[in-house]
Amino acid sequence: MRTDTETLTGTLTGTLTGTLTEQRPPVPFAAGPDRARGRAADRVSDRAADQACGRAAGLVSDKAADQACGRPAGRVSDLPGLPTTIISGGTVVLADRLAPAHDVLISGGRILAIEPGRPRTPSASLRVIDATGRYVAPGFIDIHSDYIETLASPRPSVVLDLRAALYEADRLLVSYGVTTMYHSLSIYRQLIFDHKPIRAFENVERLIELINRMRAHETTDHLIRHRLHVRLELDAVDRFREVEECLLADKVDLVSFMDHTPGQGQYRDLEVFAKTIKSYKGELSDEQVQELVDKQQTAAKLTLEEVRHLAGVARERGISIASHDDDSVEKLAFMREIGAGISEFPISMAVAQTARARGMYTLGGAPNVLLGHSHAGNLSAREAITAGACDILCSDYCPAALLRAVFELHYGCGLELPHAFALVSLNPARAVGIDREFGELAAGKRADILLIRERKSDMGGELIPVVEEVFVEGRSVFHTRYPHYDERDSRGADENRGVDAGRRADAGRGVDAGRGVDAGRRAACRA
After folding, report:
1. pLDDT of residue 520
2. Model pLDDT, residue 205
3. Nearest to 426 by CA among 136, 215, 137
4. φ and ψ at 468, to 5 degrees?
5. Which strand (E) or helix (H) includes residue 121?
6. Per the confidence metrics, is the pTM higher than 0.70?
7. CA-to-CA distance for 490 and 472, rounded, in angstroms?
8. 56 in helix, strand or coil?
9. What is the pLDDT of residue 34?
10. CA–CA separation, 88 vs 469, rounded Å?
């Protein structure tokens, strides 16, 4: 299958531009019905499939259409009539607005209704949780994170028990508000910067198997949902068959194609590459850096035919496809042609805007938001979000950054809270095709819910958002409470708390660009 001259790297750096002249209609990144027809069981959001089955896109209450499409029942019309849990009195973060003092009614692991709050009496069959003063938000969906590598390999030369690391991830991720994690595992031939034993293929293969097992028992043995994102580096020419087998075996939920060859993509600026490589490998001469550049640029890569083949297998199985570090319109055109629906970390604003114009979701990193810039000198996530060029935030390597980034965008950039929360919930759900079940608080959706309070820090008085309780399918799986808790040291989410007008004039409706947000943080958002 290999043809040594026709590679993706060569094509997208201009040496084989003629191969991109054949334009095909973009292929949806999650085509086809459920897993029995080539899609994983929880990928039930394909708009074309909805319409083909006679259902309006996004409707969640048509039982006959569900059955005609081979989908399980269990939408609004099938839910039991009485709630078993009510989250009462919080400010509910809906897809398009905040709903202060509302109740979320839960039954059978799904949201039964969202109603204006009223007194509720608990009973033997009804649990009532008082959410007064807290935001009630959808659980976070993190579609790009290699955090598991940090837990399994806390030092580069050490690899701990992988099963224990996944259980530790389960416990820690839920405390950060992540209810669905797409563990992002890299498959490559040669790591440019430093060797990490955790990325040896035998360890990656073992993690793939363990994550697949966790899926089968997630409702009984685990706190959150664990999914798999395979990050395929184009130099992994010796792993083509193994990746194909994983795709065919339905072990993969998202696949991305990466190329970290210096001179393009993330390291298109060779000076940035030189600085980065020296920080990893110590002091290197310019000649040694050039040797590494030459070695990477001449290394064998997967061919266009091989990339197209793997993307085709992914599409047939309903597996979402992403491109990575897009730096040109030509690369976007090729990736969209093979069915990519997500552009991860576009290098520039122009590329990000082009990706969205082509119907792709764009993804940035939450740590980028907190830092105020890209660590590699590329596109600022804050700038992209405020310009409407970034749809999704991922944790990348720091899950704790997700919640902080949401509130930083709210206060520092004037972003409405529903928009900020959508970056880490509804939008990633849509991008990977699970939004019929997950991603927002709405009747019929799975009850993956966070209770969040802003708490005043004792280290300067800054307000810190904290996750106090997490529900997955209506089950409380995490609950924490600070000792010596004092309501006066916290800020709730309801309107009547006397919120500092300099930070947010109205907690019930969010802030907009004219609300007098701290000028330093707003300036950092634009910088």
Report:
1. 56
2. 96
3. 137
4. -100, -30
5. none
6. yes
7. 25
8. coil
9. 37
10. 13
CA atoms within 13 A on the CB side of 238: 5
* Coil, helix or strand at residue 13: coil
Tokens encoding 308: 């197209």
User: Is there a contact between 480 and 176 (Cβ–Cβ < 8 Å)?
Assistant: no
What does the pLDDT read at residue 73?
Answer: 37
Contact 389, 363 (CB under 8 A): no
Tell me which residue has tokens 């405390």: 175
* Contact residues for 405 (Cβ-Cβ < 8 A; gap 6+): 366, 367, 369, 370, 393, 420, 423, 424
Give residues with Cβ within 8 angstroms of 286, minimum separation 6: 274
**Exposed, middle or buried by CB within 10 Å (0-12, 13-18, 19+), for 163?**
middle
Residue with tokens 């907690």: 507
3-state secondary structure of 444: coil
Burial per residue of 404-428, b for 16 or more beta-carbon CB atoms within 10 angstroms, e otherwise: bbbbbbbbbbbbbbbbbbbbbbbbb
- Written in H, E and C, the secondary structure of 457-491 is CCCCCCEEEEEEEEEECCEEEEECCCCCCCHHHEE
How does 348-360 read in b/e, with b if 16+ C-beta sit within 10 Å? beebbbbbbebeb
Mean pLDDT in each 10-residue stretch from start to end of the chain (527 residues)? 51 35 32 35 39 35 40 42 93 98 97 96 95 97 97 92 97 98 90 73 96 90 96 93 97 92 56 59 66 67 94 98 92 94 95 96 97 79 96 97 98 97 98 98 98 87 92 96 61 45 38 41 59
